[in-house]
C-alpha cells in the first residue's frame, strides 16, 4: 500500500488563522502545497497572513469570518469551495479565553454562552456546512483544536473547560459517524503555547508555570502544534480517527 504524504492541491479552511496556531497551521499547509482559506474574525489579520503566504509563493485567500455567526458559516464555506473548487480539510481553530468563577451571577451565563458558541457550536456548524464538499474529497480531514483544559482544568475556567471537553466528545462522535465514508475527525489539545491568547501572562509567570508543570520546562511555539495538526491532514493519515492528542510539552504526563 502506498500512501501519499503530499498536500499539493488540497483545499483547506482554517478558522482563527489571523494569529497564533491558526496562522502557523495556514502557513505550513500552504508550504506543503495546499490552497488555504485563511479565515479570521479580524479581516486585516487574515489578509496579512494570506498576503504573507502568497508572497512566499503559496496559495491563499483571506475571509473575514466570525465563527459564531450562523449564516456567515454557510456563506464562507460555500465561497471557499466555489473559489478553490472543493474542500478537503477543515481546521476548527478559532478560540477565545472564557474564565469566570461559578458564583459570578453577573457574568457567568454570558461568558458560558459565548464560550460554547465560539468554541464548540461553531465546530459542528462548520463541519455540517463543509460535509457535502468533504464527501466529494479523496482525503477528507477534520481537525478540531481543543485544549489540555478539556483533560484537566484550571481554577475558574469552567466555561472554557466545558466547551473544550465538548470538542473532544464531538470529535469522537463524528469520527464514528463519518468513518465509513473515509472522513477522519481528530482533536488536538494544546498545552501552554506562546500566542495572542497567552500574551497577557507575564513572562516570569509563564516560566514558573512551565518549569513546575510541563516535562519540557517551557511554553511551546505555535508551529510545534501546527505541525501535528498538519500531520493529521495528510492523505497518509487515513487510519487515524477519533483521537485526542495532547501537544503540551508533557503537561498531562507530569504528576510532580
Ligand atoms: P490566538 O493567537 O488568540 O488566535 C485565536 C484566533 O481566533 C485569533 O486570530 C482570533 O481573532 C480568532 N477568533 C477569536 N474569536 C473568533 C471568532 N468568533 N471567529 C473567528 N475567529 C475568532 O490564540 P491561539 O492560542 O492561537 O488559539 C488557537 C486555538 O488554540 C484556540 O481554540 C484556543 O482555545 C486553543 N488553545 C490555545 C492555547 C494556548 O496556550 N495558546 C492552549 C490550548 C488551546 P482576533 O485576534 O481578531 O480576536
UniProtKB/TrEMBL annotation:
The keyword Lipid biosynthesis does not apply. Transmembrane segments: none annotated. The keyword Oxidoreductase applies. This is SDR family NAD(P)-dependent oxidoreductase. Belongs to the short-chain dehydrogenases/reductases (SDR) family. It is an enzyme of class 1 (oxidoreductase). CDD domains: SDR_c (cd05233). It holds the Pfam family adh_short_C2. One of its GO terms (molecular function) is oxidoreductase activity. Its EC number is 1.1.1.-. Keywords: Oxidoreductase. SUPFAM superfamilies: NAD(P)-binding Rossmann-fold domains.
Amino acid at each position: 500500500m502506498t500512501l501519499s504524504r503530499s498536500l499539493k492541491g488540497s483545499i483547506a479552511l482554517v478558522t482563527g488563522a489571523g494569529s497564533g496556531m491558526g496562522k502557523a497551521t495556514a502557513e505550513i499547509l500552504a508550504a506543503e502545497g495546499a490552497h488555504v482559506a485563511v479565515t479570521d474574525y479580524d479581516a486585516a489579520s487574515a489578509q496579512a497572513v494570506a498576503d504573507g503566504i502568497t508572497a512566499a509563493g503559496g496559495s491563499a485567500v483571506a475571509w473575514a469570518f466570525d465563527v459564531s455567526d450562523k449564516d456567515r458559516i454557510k456563506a464562507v464555506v460555500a465561497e471557499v469551495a466555489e473559489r478553490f473548487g472543493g474542500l478537503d480539510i477543515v481546521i476548527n481553530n478559532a478560540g477565545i479565553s472564557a474564565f469566570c468563577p461559578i458564583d459570578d451571577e453577573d457574568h457567568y451565563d454570558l461568558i458560558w454562552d459565548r464560550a460554547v458558541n465560539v468554541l464548540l457550536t461553531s465546530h459542528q456548524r462548520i463541519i455540517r456546512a463543509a460535509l457535502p464538499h468533504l464527501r466529494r474529497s479523496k482525503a477528507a480531514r477534520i481537525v478540531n483544536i481543543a485544549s489540555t483544559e478539556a483533560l484537566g482544568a484550571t481554577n475558574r475556567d469552567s466555561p472554557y473547560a466545558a466547551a473544550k471537553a465538548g470538542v473532544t466528545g464531538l470529535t469522537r462522535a463524528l469520527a464514528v459517524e463519518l468513518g465509513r465514508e473515509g472522513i477522519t475527525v481528530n482533536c488536538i489539545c494544546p498545552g501552554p503555547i506562546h500566542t495572542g491568547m497567552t500574551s497577557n501572562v507575564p513572562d516570569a509567570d509563564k516560566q514558573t508555570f512551565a518549569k513546575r508543570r510541563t516535562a519540557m520546562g517551557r511554553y511551546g511555539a505555535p508551529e510545534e502544534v501546527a505541525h501535528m495538526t498538519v500531520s493529521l491532514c495528510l492523505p497518509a493519515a487515513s487510519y487515524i480517527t477519533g483521537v485526542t492528542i495532547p501537544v503540551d510539552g508533557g503537561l498531562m504526563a507530569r504528576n510532580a
